[in-house]
Task: structure prediction
Amino acid sequence: MKEKVSLDKNLIKNGNGSCASAQKFDKIIEVRNVTKVFDDVTVVDNMSFSIKRGDFVTFLGPSGCGKTTLLRMIAGFEKPTSGEIFLEREDVTLIPPHKRPINTVFQKYALFPHLNVYKNIAFGLKLKQIPHQIQHKKTGESVDTTRKYTKNEIHEKVQHALKMVGLDGYDKRDVSTLSGGQQQRVAIARAIVLEPKDLLLDEPLGALDLKMRKEMQIELMNIHKNLGITFVYVTHDQEEALTMSDKILIINDGVVQQAGTPKKIYDEPANAFVANFIGESNILSGVMVADFKVQFSGQTFDCTDKGFSKNEKVDLVIRPEDIEISDLVVSGQWSVVSEGESKNKKTPNQSPITNHHFIGTVTSSVFKGTYYEMHVDVGSYEFTVQSTTGFVIGAKVALNIPPQSIHIMRKMKTVNSFKTVVTSENTIEICGANYEFINNETEPFEKGDEVIAEIEFEDIYLADHDDYTPAGGNIGQTYYKGSYYQVQVYTDDDDELYVNTTDEWDIDDRVGIAINPEKIKVKKYVEEEDGEEETESIEV
Amino acid sequence: MEQTIIKNQPKRHSSITNFWQSVHKDWLFWVLICGFGLLGLGIYVLVRKDGNRGVFILPYLILAILFIIVPLVFLFIQAFISFEGGFTFNNFLSFSEMGGWSLLWRSIRIAGITTLICLVIAYPVALILSSKEMKVPLIVIMFFIVPMLINVVLRTFALREIFMWIERAVRESRGEVFNLSDDFKIITALILDYFPFMLLPIYTILRTQDKSLQEAAADLGASKIRVFLKVVLPLSVAGIISGIMMVFLPAISNFAIPYIVMEFFNAESQLLGNLIWHQFSSRTTYNVGAAYGLILLLLVATSVAIITKFTKGKAKGGISF
Result:
């Protein structure tokens, strides 16, 4: 957990920040260093970003990643533990929801069951104060004051909103008699009728069936276009996010993983999480041998990325539709290439001279309407390939990976590292439990020593249950890396660690964590000047 | 002699037959009633047709006929029969002579005040208990229910003692005669007895109320007071009605609490229930009691009808009558 930002430091920062931002961008919402902690669990971790006026922005992430909490803080239902939220350069962090010019469409509609459709939509209008000028009777001066909407104005606005969501004639209906889609339309009408500067939508289509959802997606996009206001949309559905948004913010573990246009996020995912979450992808581990050269699966490939240090371990993503798949017979090698030979081809540093990189066998082939999705086993990795030409299961195929289709990402984490304490002569605390270790250092450790423990991903063994292991945990994300899986394990004391394993685990599976004592590298902890972590503001 | 003793000694039975012999045979009644219920369930599970669901009502139907409908019919007949036998209206006519009308009015007044005070106290308490922000522990909620765990007679007797202490304390300090009014004593006792019945339905309905509705109202520009008046209150009407029914109806027909609180003295001039009790305590006025009982029944039925009429369609998401 990160330290809270000290108050005075923050004030200075804000003063500088808002001036600069005002000139550069028309930011409607700005979130600065926002952290939210619920019962010692950090849900949103020091987040900073801003949203441009008029955009359709989506917060995308798996459930429990903090996206809804973030939205609720913007709406005003939750107060950040630290940090500020600005709306049109005005600090609204402590302003209650009813005073914010923002309206929300709730996940489960939250329509008032005791009111009919008309009264539901008119609810906010009846409360709203609008600026009004009156002429003073004697002096003739005009005085600025506020008034409420008249009955006729309300009627007109409600009818207009109903028309906008395609529900004219439903005004007298009881909300409980409406279908899910219709209720959602009423909820949208109720929010947009107030002409908010900002419309927040919290997984509004989650409860609808697929066909209805697709219809509503298009309708929402039309409403966004017609109104021209900013939409902030929360979803866990990556397809929905890609279809609808101008900008996407990918969130995981309370941290923005990547922000950008749907195309940018799809084509250039920032890390393995994003690549895995957005679309089908082949994620492999590789080594950058030089600029524009990456080595994986025993071969060196040309690629379009540079700027990595020599021999840096990287993740790389290849989208299934970018892989060129072709019949071996056409390339004339069907007769000569056998299983054994194809394995021999993959000796290290052998540059591909032929017109294909891999030869493999189709293990599954599914027709998806406009294309075939196939899995091709090339020995070291099973590629997911999408192509308009289908191959039968068992067919030998050649795969070609063009340089522009390889996208290199920095590794999120290369080793599990913990700052912990020695609990006795040969045990240290990891994940809240005591683990044995073998001391390779010359100096012995004493009880209570602060140390750094490092464990390689492949040195952790996951057991089916935590009966015999010191600590247990639950499986989080799984990344398929061809010959093995890289799984993220959330331990019981809310730590996370990565494990390379050949076993397949499902999300939320219960596991025991076993570590070979010899493989735990323990070093003395040297205190560093721990500067205040300041996240860079992302402009969305 | 010894031989006879041995002869009379019961044979060793298995534990089941032993148990069966120890059970009084009148329990067979409840075994049969429950048996009907389980039979209905069995038939429903086996056949699974909507039409067969009616079987479920069977156990209660038998009970209702035996112990509610039949006694009601008897009550009705008794009310129109004089002590000597034969049809008469005199049982009803004596009602005003016995001061029945003023007692009836007094019963309505006392039950009404009791209900109102219960509601005024219970609603804010329920609101606080059900609020998520407050994080009220279960033990606090239990605190309001604990009085129900103490026997009602004991509770009322204790209250009577407290009243006596207060009266004595004031008398001693001021040196003049001081008595708490009958109304105050009875209403206080009724409130203390029936408060949980007002609290629980309101608490339950507020607890189950969708909190996102309050957020939605706030989001649409409603201040905290408006959220309460426009969303929370209208949506808790069903709980309020349940609470009113569960306090007002037992209070209006009560007789035991005034009886104890008034130290068994002059109790028949307190509530309608006490008058009826008084009539039934003597065999000669049995039929008069039946007639008054019928009047009380009419009164209760009218109150239910009035409450239902006033709240028709307003009570959403709860029990409606």
